[in-house]
Amino acid sequence: MKRKNEKIGTGAGVVSGAAVGAQIGSRVGLALGPWGAIAGTVPGAIIGGIIGGLVGNRIGLEKDRKGK
């Protein structure tokens, strides 16, 4: 249980990042029509999930270091 906050932060970051990334990707793709919105959702979710996971991991790591 030494890295509990790191695991929680990574999981939460991936989920929230994927949700926000999918929303932004669909809005950008909507400029190209309905198929563009569908096509923009998946890459947006993947990129958002990666970024969110990395940020959440870092926040959890810092919490674990400080012992909170």
The largest β sheet comes out as: none
Give the total of beta strands. 0
Distance between the termini: 13 Å
The rounded Rg comes to 15 Å
- Give start-end ranges of low-pLDDT stretches: none
Envelope shape: rod-shaped
**Count of individual helical segments:** 2
Helix content: over 70%
The domain count comes to 1
Can you give the mean pLDDT?
90
Strand percentage, roughly? under 5%
Helix-and-strand structural type: mainly alpha
Q: Return the string of H and E elements.
A: HH
Give your account of this protein's structure.
The chain is mostly helical and 68 residues long. It has one domain (18-66). The chain contains two helices and no strands. The longest helix has 33 residues, at 34-66. It is rod-shaped. It starts with a helix and ends with a helix. The model has no long low-confidence stretch (mean pLDDT 90).
Short summary of the structure?
Helices cover 87% and strands 0% of the residues. It has two helices and no strands.
